[in-house]
UniProtKB/TrEMBL annotation:
Protein's UniProt name: Reticulon
Gene: rtn1b
Protein keywords: Endoplasmic reticulum, Membrane, Transmembrane, Transmembrane helix
UniProt-listed Gene3D superfamilies: 1.20.5.2480
Sequence intervals crossing the membrane: 31-60, 146-167
Amino acid sequence: MQYNEVIVAKEEPGADWVGLLYWRDLKQTGLMFSSILLLLFSLTQFSVVSVIAYLALAALSATISFRVYKSVLQAVQKTDEGHPFKSYLEVEISLSHDQMQRYAENAQYYMNSTLKELRRLFLVQDLVDSLKFAVLMWLLTYVGALFNGLTLLIMAVVSMFSMPVVYEKYQAQIDQYLGLVRTQVNSVVGKIQEKIPGAKRKAE
C-alpha cells in the first residue's frame, strides 16, 4: 500500500492534520512546525517542569499586559468595551459525551490491537515475523546508543513535516525504488522461510 493511500484512508477523522503535514496553509503549518521544534529544543536544555513554567509565565505576561493595556485605554477614552477576552471566555471548550466516548473507543481499539500484535510476536505465532521483530529491536539498541529520546522525537517531527511533501513531489521515483526494495526483501524472506523449520510462507 502506498503512502498516499494510507493518508487518504485516515483523512476523514484528521483532515486538518493532513493539510498541516502537506503544507496546504504555509502560515499555519509553519507556526505549528516551529512551535513544536521550539518546545522540543527547549526540553533538550531545560526540564519539563521548567519549560511548562516558562511557557505559562510567557502566556500570562502577554495576557495580563494586554488586559491592563485595554483597561487603561478604555479609562482614557471613557469607553466601555468590556473584557478584551470576552469572546474567547464564552467559547465552549468542554468535550461532549459522544466525543469522549469516541476517543475512548479509538484508544481502546489501538491498545487492544497493539497488545494482540505484541502477544503474537513474543509468543512466536509466526517465526519469521518474530525474527524480524528481534532484528528490529537489535537495530534499535544501536539507535538508542547514538541518539536519546528527544533527538529521535525531533527527527520524527522533522520527517513528519518534510517526507509527505517530498513523497508527493517525487512519488513515481520513490514508488519505483520502494518496489525494488520490497522485491529484494520478499526474496530474502522467502529464502529464509524455506530454510527455517516451522516457518510458514504467507499467502500473498
